[in-house]
Amino acid sequence: MATIVDDISRTFDEFLLLPGLTKVEHVPSNVSLATPVAKYKPADGGPKHKLNIPLVSAAMQSVSGSELAIALARRGGSAFTFCSQPIESQVEMVRLVKEHKAGFVVSDSNLGPDVALSEAIKLRERTGHSTIAITENGGSSSKLVGLLTSKDYWEFKDDLTRPIKDFYTPVESLVLAEEGISLTEATELLWKNKKECLPIIDKAGNLKSLVFRKDYFDHKSNPDELTDDHKRLFVGAALNTFDYLERGQALVDAGVDSLCFDSSDGYTEWQKTACLELREKIGGAVPIGGGNVVSKEGFDYLVREAQVDFVKIGIGGGSICITREQKGIGRGQASAVMAIAAERDRYYEETGVYVPLCSDGGLNSDTEMIVALAMGADFLMMGKYFAQTEESPTEKVTYRGRLYKPYWGEGSNRARNWERYKQSDRHELVFEEGVDAFVPYSGPLSDRVDVTTAKIRSTMCNCGALTIEEFHRVARLTQVSEMTLVEGSTATVEQLDRMYADRR
Ligand code: MZP
After folding, report:
1. What phi, psi does 372 have (nearest 5°)?
2. pLDDT tens digits, residue range 52-94?
3. CA 110 to ligand 1 centroid distance, Å
4. pLDDT at position 503
């Protein structure tokens, strides 16, 4: 007979935190959300690899493109670019993040000088950008001939059929800078000349980027920005257990900061072989995470045998995941995190090595995120949460007056990420393990992340913790009954049922 584990699969929503003593120093501004992303020995000093906030985006086609990676790193977290794409395009994503210079923007609103003014108005309406670079051929990197801003024309008075060259400020009258200038120097030039925008050109006069006055303030408002040793934004990447040597090396060459095997079930000999061989090939500089697992045996295998740097937890809990329905495998995410966190702590006692844990999938609310961190997760991977934001790589759609974004699982027919599921010996997806859906649009990533991190900080203060490591130690949780949920909310049992059905 099979072994029946003496355990009920629990979810985060079934727990509440009990407040601890809040001392005067326990105020949100004193809380640090910095968290390790690779194993380290606390006795030898703090972690070398860390995030400034404990949030990472899922390695999924509908979630982690370079725009989202930039926005998340600027807030202190990291994206994991997805591996269900050719090596070259994943490398290109990493390269775009690495080349993104905070403050130096590659112009995405460009036109040629002979185009009618009406085209500039259409472009402004489409992008929301009122400054348009005018280049010889209308591209983002050809010779700069002028700059058109909304102050250069009167939309309802001027003849919109006339060419832009009749309106723009020609290059001879612009304040310009040559590439190589630092952001501080560029900001000084903007300030001294009372300008809104500074075009950066190369020696031949080709446009390289633009620096905006408004971005100076934006830069100041990203104090948690996560960068590497060369002040480039931090970015992660997922790998599969097929082309990992070639893909891993190419990603490292492009400057990736963290790698992670992306598999629906990481407790496998394939993952061990892949991890050991990749480590041998790329050396020790870039952390390699493994997963996903849901048991202490899975954790032990990945840490002791595959020698991963962090462990990702979660099978079947993702909002678009139907693995549990299709195959009857998985575990309640809270139970998985609690079991593995206990094993991680045992491993730390035994070896002095702390292995960070990432809780991946099924986090539907800020409260669930807080409980996951309290239970022992060091950082959280989310798909739906980020897919809903402006910066995810999909287009917004309107349905009955409300905005939505498409979101699909890696195991859906749309993504066909067969490398993640390994359903047969053939290189194909035999049956779906994910769905193709729409999720409500939530606005800019920074707004959403700011609210989430404010709630995490506030709850940590309630519990008497100033760091995530302390939160793990002092957090006390109680299991809740259905009536406790009703008591604590403004909803009835039926409304709560509907609410949870809607969330999924
Ligand atoms: P969520 O944040 O949307 O609930 O879950 C995101 C996570 O679901 C991903 O990080 C990944 O581990 C998992 N995932 C991605 N695709 C599928 C699928 O098609 C899936 N089943 O389960």
Report:
1. -60, -45
2. 999 999 999 999 999 999 999 999 999 999 999 999 999 999 9
3. 37
4. 59
Does ligand 1 lie within 6 Å of residue 383's CB atom? Answer: yes
Look at residues 197, 446, 471, 247 and name the one whose alpha carbon lies nearest to residue 341: 471
For the segment 417-444, what is each residue's pLDDT rounded down to a tens digit? Answer: 988 988 888 888 999 899 999 999 999 9
Half-sphere exposure of 1 (CA within 13 A, CB side): 3
Residue 183 φ then ψ, to 5° = -65, -35
Extract the tokens encoding 213. 């006055």
How far is residue 444's CA from residue 438's CA, in Å, rounded to a whole number?
17
Q: What is the mean pLDDT of the chain?
A: 93
**What is the per-residue pLDDT across 449-467, written as a single tens digit (0 to 9) for each?**
999 999 999 999 999 999 9
Report the C-alpha gap between 336 and 359 in whole angstroms: 9
Distance from the alpha carbon of residue 411 to the mean position of ligand 1, in angstroms: 9
Q: Is 318 in the pocket of ligand 1 (CB under 6 A)?
A: yes
Element at 86 (helix H, strand E): none
Cα 441 to averaged position of ligand 1 atoms, centre (Å):
18
Q: Which residues of 42-59 are buried (b: 16+ CB within 10 A; e: fewer)?
A: eeeeebebbbbbbbbbbb
The residues that bridge with 438 in the sheet, in sequence order, are 406
The token pair that represents 320 in the structure block: 């678009």
Rounded to whole angstroms, the Cα distance separating 83 from 80 reads 9
The helix (H) or strand (E) run that includes residue 329 is none
Catalytic residues: 321, 420
Ligand 1 contacts CB of residue 146 (under 6 A): no
432 Cβ below 6 A of ligand 1: no
Find all residues with CB under 8 Å of 396, minimum gap 6, and list them: 403, 404, 405, 441
Q: Are strands 288-293 and 258-261 parallel, antiparallel or unpaired?
A: parallel
For residues 61 and 408, is the Cβ–Cβ distance under 8 A? Answer: yes
User: What 3-state class would DSSP assign to 450?
Assistant: helix
User: What would the 3-class secondary structure string for 351-417 be?
Assistant: HCCECCEEEECCCCCHHHHHHHHHHCCCEEEECHHHHCECCCCCCCEEECCEEEEEEECCCCCCCCC
The SS3 call for residue 290 is strand
- Residue 175 CB coordination number (10 Å): 13
pTM confidence score: 0.84
Three-class SS of residue 339? helix
| 438 CA distance to ligand 1 middle (Å) | 14
Do residues 313 and 337 touch, judged by C-beta distance below 8 A? yes
Q: How many residues does the chain have?
A: 504
- Ligand 1 atom nearest to 386, measured from its CA: 2
Coil, strand or helix at 227:
strand
Residue 60 near residue 383 (C-beta atoms within 8 A): yes
The CB of 316 under 6 Å from ligand 1? The reply is: no
Q: Which two tokens stand for residue 107?
A: 């112009």
Is pLDDT above 90 for 491?
no
